[in-house]
Amino acid sequence: MSSSKGFFHEFREFAVKGSVVDLAVGVIIGAAFSKIVDSMVKDIIMPLVNFLVGGSVDFTNKFLVLSQPAGYTGPQTYADLTKAGATVLAWGNFLTILINFILLAFVIFLMVRGINAARRRHEEAPAPAKPVPPPEDVALLREIRDLLRK
């Protein structure tokens, strides 16, 4: 009984440690950030790339049929062929995912670069100027005044 009590106490200490809580917060924020970056690539960057290229940059339906079931006469789409049991080399889907990854990595690079530049500007901000010491005669007069007050 006492060992289970020690176990739960140890688990509670582990679960509420700052590092575990920080990790959980990081994972949650990372998931939300991932959705933002995915949306930026899918909804902003890819339409611009498609516009500049003059067509859709989507290779998901490009594939090579290595073998298909004997007598199969159905549609020759990737989904239908794989459902029928055909061996399909989906090079287009891989290429689309690779392009999305490169764009995603580039967007993250730009964001991190901007954050680092802002951080450097903040760190390099000039320190507040030290007050200029009063001239010697004023300092001497203040000293005399303070002595007379005593």
Characterize the structure shown.
There is one protein chain. With 150 residues, the protein is mostly helical. It folds into two domains: 47 residues; 68 residues, no CATH class. The protein is built from five helices and two strands, in the order H-H-E-H-E-H-H. The chain has a two-stranded antiparallel ribbon with strand order 1-2. The longest helix is centred in the first third of the chain and has 36 residues. The radius of gyration is 33 Å and the shape is elongated. The model has no long low-confidence stretch (mean pLDDT 82).
Order of strands in the sheet with most strands: 1-2
Strand content: under 5%
Global Rg: 33 Å
Mean pLDDT: 82
Can you summarize the main beta sheet? 2 strands, antiparallel
Termini separation comes to: 73 Å
Number of strands: 2
Which secondary-structure class do the elements indicate? Answer: mainly alpha
Q: What characteristic shape results from the CA principal axes?
A: elongated
Secondary-structure element series? HHEHEHH
Helix content: 55-70%
Tally of domains: 2
The number of helical runs is 5
Oligomer state of the chains in this structure: single chain
Parts with pLDDT < 50 across at least 5 consecutive residues: none
Protein name: Large-conductance mechanosensitive channel
Organism: Bordetella ansorpii
GO cellular component, one term: plasma membrane
Membrane topology: Multi-pass membrane protein
